[in-house]
Amino acid sequence: MDKSRPIIILKKKSGHGGHHGGAWKVAYADFVTAMMALFIVLWLLNSSKEIQVAVGGYFKDPTGTAKKVGSNMVGTGENFTLKRDDMSKLKDQLQQAMKQMSDFEKLKSHIEMTVTSEGLRIELSESANGTFFDSGSAKLKGDGNAMLITLAQELGKLPNKLSIEGHTDSQPYSSPTYGNWELSSDRANAARRDMQAHGIGPSQVTQVRGFADQRLRKPDAPLDPANRRISLIVQYIVKDRDQEDAKPAAPPEAPQLKK
């Protein structure tokens, strides 16, 4: 043996960390994930029904291409639906938009918004001089056109359907072949055409109705100009689940006798 060659000793390094490796990291990650899931569940339990349905719909269809549970709408637009509690917010939003109009001070006394069983009803009533239409005419005037454009730009952002109504006073029409029924319908259609040209979707209007003088705003004053008006109704969105609940329960099957 050559004693001049150096002796090399190899030592295996070992320590406290060698006993555990990275297992603790996996366990810690599982713990954090579980806590996050717990907080999400607690948050959902205290959220509104709409948020719960929206979150559940996302996990069922993350792409937003399928029909979402509990809604008649398709795609991402269903996330914005107006129910009864939201109509007052829409009313405030529309009022703020109309206040930006240059002639708002002149028109504000002829605009009224109320939340009804149908939805948000927007009444545009006439003055003695004709604010929206000239007497006996279905052609929109400048002020009426500007007001309807403002409303169309706001309501066109919603998925809600609209109804448009025309009303007249009880003053008989001079023509024997054209009366208040035709005039009220023509004015409602004029409003529809104007709004669809400035923001309302082609399928957003579901009804155009003319009531002549059958629904007077002031029954005690049938000739009052306020009876001549256009009404816009922003309808509530009816959920599929609500429709299912409204269906009568199926009668129980009669018990079958043993043979």
General description of the model:
This protein has helices at residues 23-45, 49-60, 84-98, 104-107, 142-155, 180-196, 240-246; strands at 111-115, 119-125, 162-167, 205-210, 229-235. The protein has a five-stranded mixed sheet. With 259 residues, the chain is an alpha+beta fold. The chain is rod-shaped, with a radius of gyration of 33 Å. Mean pLDDT is 78; it is low at 64-80 and 240-249. It has seven helices and five strands, in the order ααααββαβαββα.
Largest sheet: 5 strands, mixed
Mean pLDDT: 78
Distance between the termini: 106 Å
Question: How big a fraction of the residues is strand?
Answer: 5-15%
In the predicted model, the low-confidence regions spanning at least 5 consecutive residues are 64-80, 240-249
Q: State the helix count.
A: 7
Could you spell the SSE succession in H and E letters?
HHHHEEHEHEEH
Query: Would you count the extended β strands for me?
Result: 5
Briefly note the structural class of the backbone: alpha+beta
Task: Give the % helix.
Answer: 25-40%
The value of Rg in angstroms is 33 Å
Strand order in the sheet with the most strands: 1-2-5-3-4
Shape: rod-shaped
